[in-house]
From TrEMBL:
<dbReference type="Pfam" id="PF00085">
    <property type="entry name" value="Thioredoxin"/>
</dbReference>
<keyword id="KW-1015">Disulfide bond</keyword>
<feature type="domain" description="Thioredoxin">
    <location>
        <begin position="64"/>
        <end position="219"/>
    </location>
</feature>
<protein>
    <recommendedName>
        <fullName>Thioredoxin domain-containing protein</fullName>
    </recommendedName>
</protein>
<dbReference type="GO" id="GO:0045454">
    <property type="term" value="P:cell redox homeostasis"/>
</dbReference>
<dbReference type="InterPro" id="IPR013766">
    <property type="entry name" value="Thioredoxin_domain"/>
</dbReference>
<dbReference type="InterPro" id="IPR036249">
    <property type="entry name" value="Thioredoxin-like_sf"/>
</dbReference>
<keyword id="KW-0676">Redox-active center</keyword>
<keyword id="KW-0813">Transport</keyword>
<keyword id="KW-0249">Electron transport</keyword>
<dbReference type="GO" id="GO:0009507">
    <property type="term" value="C:chloroplast"/>
</dbReference>
<comment type="similarity">
    <text>Belongs to the thioredoxin family.</text>
</comment>
Length: 262
């Protein structure tokens, strides 16, 4: 709060003191002095007339000292709309690598990725309801991605409309994706009811982003090349070994059956 100080006062034979405010973060006082001539000597009918003070003492008045201490007011920054009413299961994503890791480490929990922009009116209007749904579904994880801070990542994931949501779960990977507003919030609630129910484990590690999306993010340097490439390569090797093992088992069973028949 800025304080405006515009008052002043004067004393005979002394100074005229005024103050004014300056600045917005506190009240600062500045003083200007104007010397008033001594009024003890004046002219009366063309003759000099000496006037003494009330005490009859011709001593000069004591100097007047004024001490002023500037006060400052510290105002804390208010929360921005996307920072308000957040719940413990709502996590702000700060990098593409963090998004990849969060999806892979979620296990079989339902993960909802919320793409938003600070300047998006629909995102701002929908935010309180998303927070309410997050509070009502604490087993789900809500990952918030600021489009303005991660444009390159969003382009690689083909996010071109806001607000936009993606639902992921365990080994199934991405379940659905859509855009919705306050008017179409039922779409979000239906998806939450469909995919948020308790179920047995999907039987495998969380899939996360598609391989093509990982490659796109890796090509622009947003994620480490080793992490996604090694994981997808290991998955391919394991799938190949499993398929070969199954094929060998089938061949062995067929040979055994033929020998028994013979």
């Amino acid at each position: 709060m800025a304080c405006s100080l515009k008052n002043g006062f004067s004393l005979p034979g002394e100074t005229i003191i005024s103050s004014r405010s300056k600045g917005s973060s506190g009240a600062f006082m500045s003083f200007s002095a104007v010397q008033v001539p001594d009024s003890r000597t004046t002219d009366f009918l063309g003759k000099a007339l000496n006037i003494s003070d009330q005490t009859g003492n011709a001593k000069a008045s004591r100097p007047l000292s004024v001490n002023a201490q500037a006060s400052s007011i510290c105002v804390s920054r208010s929360l921005r709309w996307w920072e308000k009413t957040l719940k413990p299961n709502m996590i702000e994503i700060h990098s593409a690598q963090e998004l990849v890791d969060a999806l892979l480490n979620a296990g079989d929990r339902l993960v909802i990725v919320d793409f938003y922009s600070p300047g998006c009116g629909g995102c701002k209007a929908l935010h309180p309801k998303i927070c309410q749904l997050a509070e009502a579904n604490q087993s789900a994880i809500f990952l918030k991605v600021n489009y303005e801070e991660h444009k390159a990542m969003c382009h690689s994931l083909h996010i071109h409309v806001l607000p936009y949501f993606r639902f992921y779960r365990g080994a199934d990977g991405r379940l659905c994706s859509f855009s919705c507003t306050n008017a179409t919030i039922k779409k979000f609630k239906d998806a939450l009811a469909k995919y948020g129910t308790e179920r047995c484990s999907g039987g495998g590690p969380a899939k996360g982003l598609e391989e093509s999306e990982l490659l796109a993010l890796s090509s622009i340097g947003k994620i480490s090349r080793k992490v996604p490439m090694e994981s997808t390569m290991m998955d391919r090797v394991e799938d190949l070994v499993m398929s070969m093992t199954n094929a060998q088992n089938k061949i062995g069973l067929q040979e055994t059956n033929e020998m028994l028949v013979a």
